[in-house]
Design a protein that fits this description.
Layout: H1 5-15, E1 23-26, H2 29-36, E2 43-48, E3 53-57, E4 71-74, H3 78-82, E5 88-90, H4 96-102, E6 107-109, H5 112-118, H6 122-142, H7 152-165, E7 170-171, E8 176-179, E9 200-205, E10 207-209, E11 212-213, E12 216-221, H8 227-246, H9 253-266, E13 278-280, E14 287-291, E15 304-307, E16 310-313, E17 317-320, E18 323-328, E19 331-334
Parallel strand pairs: 1-5, 3-4, 5-6
Antiparallel strand pairs: 1-2, 2-3, 7-10, 8-9, 9-12, 10-11, 13-14, 15-18, 16-17, 18-19
Helix pairs in contact: 6-7, 8-9
The structure holds glycine and manganese (II) ion (MN) (2 copies).
Residues 215, 279, 306, 308, 322 line the site of one manganese (II) ion (MN).
């Protein structure tokens, strides 16, 4: 796969005149990777308005710059090498200490690369599709092991190991497994609690594949669900369908959120769904754009985003259902394909 990094840099360069800078110093590691292909914990790239660029990294990574389509140089103080008065910087990622150290005249800019990264090219969509396919397959492969006596931590370990066996670099984030009452905590960390008949079990996990992050959540029932469990499951599933249908190019971020949230509110559970509906995924697990009641902006075409409503009942349990979907043409393409029927195990 040949990624056209030069074209990505040209798109950023074209944005600079409107921000009244001749050049931009990119210091966020993930943004440097996006613009050059270099994955490094200590690198910076200067993008000039004419489209030319200079990548700087330290001695540990300099060999990895050979073969990249960008001029590269070695320095230990990578940002210091490129900083100069009038150069734009990434205000969201540079520390205040570095900003002061580099001297006066730098121009803090809004997150321009993040805005570019929201819209994915074909290569990126293919990597994300693979990340999601690994995620689906891992779930299918471990489902037979979900049962009484298995702990949350056991299940998380099984999912993580299976994703890696299937080709993931590693899990895209710390896998969540939440059984019974723990399901009321949206980002519960797995414990030694054993699964029991009567539990709803929420699993939130995803594969990282060649830098791209999948994100999926499924909630299953151990044994026949009680009426209240089936009721909140069907409610969340309905809200998840409505939210997914609202994902399309041109849709307003807050309207997509409302499509899902209004259904949960109408059922009297508005206070039990207190996080945003979703977020972009790509080189980071949480990236632009974000879906929530106070989010602004509209979705563009080719934007991967999660749709993840939940209902969380303190002390009792919860349900979350999450897919990764991508705006395409007149609607959205589903990337995580595992069934959303309530599985009774
Ligand atoms: N797994 C983290 C999230 O769903 O946002
Ligand atoms: Mn998730
Ligand atoms: Mn998510």
């Amino acid at each position: 796969m040949t990624v056209n990094y030069q074209e990505r840099r040209a798109r950023l360069a074209a944005m600079l005149p409107a921000h009244e800078v001749e050049a931009m110093l990119v210091t966020s590691a993930v943004n440097v990777r996006y613009l050059t292909g270099l994955a490094s914990s200590n690198a910076a790239v200067l993008i000039r308005a004419d489209g030319s660029a200079l990548l700087v990294t330290d001695n540990r990574y300099i060999d990895k710059t050979r073969g990249l389509d960008v001029e590269a140089a070695e320095a230990s103080d990578v940002a210091g090498e490129l900083a100069a008065p009038g150069v734009g910087i990434e205000a969201a990622s540079m520390s205040v200490a570095t900003y002061h150290r580099l001297g006066a005249g730098l121009v803090p800019l809004e997150p321009l690369v993040e805005r570019l990264r929201a819209v994915k090219d074909d290569d990126e969509l293919e990597l994300l599709r693979t990340a999601c396919a690994i995620t689906d397959q891992a779930f299918a492969d471990i489902i037979r092991t979900i049962g009484p006596g298995v702990t949350e931590r056991d299940l998380a370990r099984l999912l993580d190991a299976r994703m890696i066996e299937l080709g993931a670099d590693k899990p895209a984030f710390e896998t969540i497994v939440a059984a019974g009452e723990n399901g009321a905590v949206p980002h519960h960390a797995p414990t030694d609690r054993e699964l029991r008949s009567g539990d709803l079990v929420t699993m939130d996990f995803g594969a990282l594949y060649q830098g791209y992050h999948a994100d999926m959540t499924r909630t299953v029932s151990l044994g026949e669900p009680a009426a209240w469990q089936r009721e909140i499951y069907e409610l969340v599933a309905q809200a998840q369908r409505a939210g997914s249908l609202a994902v399309l190019p041109g849709a307003e971020a807050k309207q997509v959120d409302a499509a899902s949230r209004d259904i949960i509110k109408a059922a009297g559970h508005g206070d039990h769904f207190r996080h945003g509906l979703g977020h972009g995924v790509g080189l980071e697990i949480h990236e632009e754009p974000f879906l929530g009641p106070s989010r602004t902006g509209r979705l563009e075409d080719r934007v991967p985003i999660t749709v993840e409503p939940g209902v969380y009942l303190p002390g009792r349990g919860g349900v979350r259902i999450e897919d990764t979907v991508v705006t395409r043409g007149g609607g959205a393409e589903l990337f995580t394909k595992t069934t959303k029927e309530l599985l009774v195990l």
